[in-house]
Batch of 2 targets.
Target 1
Amino acid sequence: MRTERAAIPLFKVFLAPEGELMPRLRDVLYSGQISEGVPVYEFERKFSAFVGLPNILSFYSGTAALHAALILAGVKAGDEVISTPMTAEPTNMAIRHAGGEIVWADVDPANGNLTAAAISERITPRTRAIMVVHYGGIPAPMDGIREIAGRAGVPVVEDAAHALGARYGDLPIGALSKYAMFSLQAIKHMTTVDGGMLACKDPGDLPRGRTLRWFGIDRQSSRTEVDVSRVGYKYHMNNVNATIGLVQLDHVASVVERHIANGRFFDAALRGIPGLDLCRWDEQAQPSYWFYTVLAERREDLSRYLTEHGIGNSQAHKRNDWHSVFASSRRELPGLDSFYSRMLHIPCGWWVSDEDREYITNTIKIGW
């Protein structure tokens, strides 16, 4: 039976206080300059400082940023891109947008991330990129993946949509690869309503990235004097979204810190419960816990039980290899079969109070 307490959602949008956000939005909305301009470039600089990565390009969505990364990585029609089905669909749609052929690699049943060994098995002379997702904010085993990629001479694109604020060893997530995408979609750690940021290892990628995001034209060049030599897209961020981002940056550190604090609480409090396993990961990984993933026996029973007690829960994503649009890539993935049959996500975000997390823990401990 559902309790009288307020439900605890799996996802909740964080926006800065109205008194901070609305005056800034009003200023930009009536400034006469609402497309890409100074606020966008300021947001890129300040976001770069926050994530600790020097070369940042903004886009109107994370999907657009991933598409651009694949183009910059040299992916063309018919090239193979190794990827994971355990992600949101945009990860793999971006590969199709670039004309690439998706090659699934298997995941670690302990956390849903690609493994270096699984990637190694799928590399061929046609492989042009490796797409790595840090599922749920748990960093993938980047040391092993980098070694495999380096040996094959293939760039890694990190989809860090779930992993803002995560670290791998002493470095921020995304620091080890040629490209890394951060999503600013509505329910991520930080939102600009929608948006995406692309970190490029090589600063030489920035000029082409800027032209890719706006019809092959660099917005800071004279419109009548440039020559458009390559196909580009309408992928740029605008000043309105950037202004939201600038205000959000004043709060994002505390938001991420709360996700991490709640995740670490569950790491300790949920250990040893019969019928429940916790995710395990590379010792170098420091997750940012976008949501908290448990691996449960009788997963559907646990889901119903939590819902009855007002605790949001979900599988969140359908494994992509089950979609008809990706049917040509299907293969056996026993690690994913194991993970997907047991995984369930529960809330651990900034909105989960100390009382909430105790309630979640105690409810699970009673048993389902």
Target 2
Amino acid sequence: MKHLAMLAAAAALCGSAQAQHGSSASNMALLGHNDLQARSAYQPLVHAQGSRWIAYVGHHGGAAVNPLNGQREDNGTSVVDVTDPRKPRYLAHIPGEPGQGESGGAQMVRVCNGRDLPKGDPAKVYLLRSYGNSAHEVWDVTVPGKPERVSVVVDKLKGTHKNWWECDSGTAYLVSGLPDWRTRRMTQVFDLSDPAKPVLVRNFGLVGQEPGSSGPAPTELHGPISTGPKGNRVYFAYGTNKAGVLQIVDRQKLLAGPHEPTAANLLAPQVGRLDLPAFNGAHTALPVLGMELPEFAKDKGGARRDFVVVVNEQILNECLEPRQMVFMVDITDEKVPFSVAPSTCRSRAAASARAAAASARTRRTRTSRPCTRASTSSSPGSTPACARSTSAIRTIRARPAITFRRPPRIRTSAA
């Protein structure tokens, strides 16, 4: 059921502002808790180090006192030993960039063992992180409680976000904002096979974002996901909540092709592209490849399909901007990707009608409990609601074109 868990995680972003409902659990139970020194968390990653499991957690901007040293520190990266999940133990805090929310902290973390990197020290473990919106750094976390900075990969940026690091090749795809590019976030490809000696491979983005171009600049990058040397594809998601773009890129052509950021060179590695409406973005593009579809098993071809789950995100308030959705995009023919199953949170009326219908059937069918969206309105009854995000999975599975009857093989996953 791993593929459904991944889809559920993606669909959970369908309504990022929905809260206001009581906690609940299904097939899981809380084992342990750590307050992370009251710092707002963004990207968590759990990494095996010997006999221990270490959680590295990126934080939004802000500041709090670090009880380990009594000092007030700008939010950065928390290091927590979760080997015993019932008793998480806070080991270290690496301060980040001063600022609040998206303007500070150190939101993104990736970790590679030195023995996996082509030129890394086999005895070391390395942490790649963003430093606020201004830089990317590599830290030595071999001794998790005593992290040491190895290198500053690049600095003097105007934006950062969700990076990707291939441990087997050392190639890193960094979300950066160079001063001369026409967007706050684009891609810098670095060779981090030796984390102590970063090497820039190229700068990359959509045509119209490059220096010297004219006309409207396409929406900014949110994050890439690579399938590595074997898969030879990189999936880029642009536009968190508007004018989204899914871009499929040939990895080898991206790395080996001409690097000068001209329109022709930026287009050269592109395999396929899907533009979303102006009111929907592409927060994450998660490849789910090699799915066996029993619905098409007896057809001549097409029983095995490749998909990308494209997820949007609400930015401000769901009541004040278009509703974001989850798109299942068929990329079996990469040159012509197309959406086969968009899913969205239901309105209050739809949720009520669904509940009434279920009650009439004497509750033979379980339904999603409505959850209230965040709202700035103070008038009673004015706040709309949507169903829990798991309804997106039910919607996807109900469509005859992509019926899942047994777990397919997954060739890639995302942190």
